[in-house]
Amino acid sequence: SQGELLRLFPRWPRERRAAFRGLRARGGFRVAARWDPSEGLNARIESIAGRACRVRWRADAPPAVTCDGEAVPVERGDGEIVFATTTGATYELRAAADTMQAWSHVC
């Protein structure tokens, strides 16, 4: 994270797989994420503090964000997405690889 903006795989080359889990991020989040060049991005973000979650996002289409299988409203900002969270809830973020083709790096 940078400030309170989550950056998933910053500067990571698109053609290489990557994954992490249990990362504590500023703003009160625990994050696990996986990038696969053929499958795309999958992330699980647990809200520890119940604050709005801000994720750096440069793709034209926002990712699908869900909590307990229900869609979560996402707002677009300047190079980021933002969604409200509840303390203790886990949010899933998914984006297909083809929605990010214009990127030289993942996020």
List the helices and strands and how they pair.
Blueprint: E1 5-6, E2 18-25, E3 29-36, E4 40-47, E5 53-56, E6 64-67, E7 70-71, E8 75-76, E9 80-83, E10 90-95
Parallel strand pairs: 1-5
Antiparallel strand pairs: 2-3, 3-4, 4-10, 5-9, 6-7, 6-10, 8-9
What distance separates the N and C termini? 12 Å
**Overall pLDDT:** 89
The shape, in one word, is globular
Helix tally equals 0
- What is the SS-derived class? mainly beta
The radius of gyration computed from the alpha-carbon positions, rounded to a whole number of angstroms, is 13 Å
Count every beta strand, where a strand is a DSSP E run of 2 or more residues.
Answer: 10
Largest sheet: 6 strands, antiparallel
Q: If strands are numbered along the chain, what order do they take across the biggest sheet?
A: 2-3-4-10-6-7
Low-confidence stretches: none
Q: Fraction of residues in helices?
A: under 10%
Order of helices and strands: EEEEEEEEEE
Strand composition percent? 35-45%
Key descriptive features of the protein:
107 residues; mainly beta; 4-stranded mixed β-sheet; globular
Description:
The mean pLDDT is 89. It is globular, with a radius of gyration of 13 Å. Strand 6 (64-67) and strand 7 form a beta hairpin. The termini are close together. The protein has 107 residues and is mainly beta. Strands 2-3-4-10-6-7 form a 6-stranded antiparallel beta sheet, with no helix packed on it. It has a 4-stranded mixed beta sheet with strand order 1-5-9-8, with no helix packed on it. It is built from no helices and 10 strands. Helix content is 0%, strand content 45%.
